[in-house]
Design a protein that fits this description.
2 copies of one chain form a homodimer. With 119 residues, chain A is mainly β. The first copy, chain A, contains 1 helix and 8 strands; from the N terminus they run E-E-H-E-E-E-E-E-E. Strand 7 of chain A pairs antiparallel with strand 5 of chain B. Chains A, B: Its main location: cytoplasm.
């Protein structure tokens, strides 16, 4: 079936969450938001393009930092209200310079940092 | 630092997205929502407990289907507005009986089913 971004289920703000996962290591790198046009641009350019809710603008991941996400494959879930982007991530995905944004684990009721910033 | 679920960043509905990832295979299984009490219950019981937006009630994953998610580790992201649950998933995570909800890939502009329901 031919894919139309308009058939995805967006929230009241017209956004859909997108999980970025390292296509090689399967590490979950981050989660950010897309609107329909972000989805279209991501598929057309092969560069993962989110919608920045704070800046209210398109956010071509890595455009300023160089830490680009090259799309390997975009997948959607059963409810069509969440996306999974398999990516090749250049350097850190997180703005803190860590490979993944999920660097804090909860262990025995404590927050534990399990990842250090990349050199 | 001791963890307090109230320090997470929830949306206007008091919810935070939680990505469930298979702790062994690293496969991303699903994404659903939690409120602060879901987070507390998940940590206390070791059974991943979402908040069902449609039913407006707690949703102990697998309570009716038997396809439970045993929590291995809960992680939070840099913005504290997204969770990653590493889980042991019994059987399929998806209500369609597929292992993962992300069984549809976009390939050459087409929707392609890449996973069949489990036996």
């Amino acid at each position: 079936m031919s894919f139309d971004p308009a058939t995805l289920v967006y929230d009241d703000a017209g956004l859909i969450p997108c999980i970025a996962q390292d296509a090689d290591s399967s590490e979950v790198l981050m989660m950010a938001w897309m609107n329909a046009e972000s989805v279209t641009r991501t598929l057309e350019t092969g560069r993962v393009t989110y919608w920045s809710r704070s800046r209210k603008s398109f956010w071509i991941k890595g455009e300023s930092s160089g830490h680009v996400q090259k799309l390997v494959e975009l997948r959607l879930d059963c409810d069509r209200d969440c996306l999974l982007a398999l990516v090749e991530q250049a350097g850190p995905a997180c703005h803190t310079n860590r490979r993944s944004c999920f660097y804090t684990a909860l262990r025995n009721g404590e927050e534990v940092e399990i990842m250090t910033p990349m050199a």
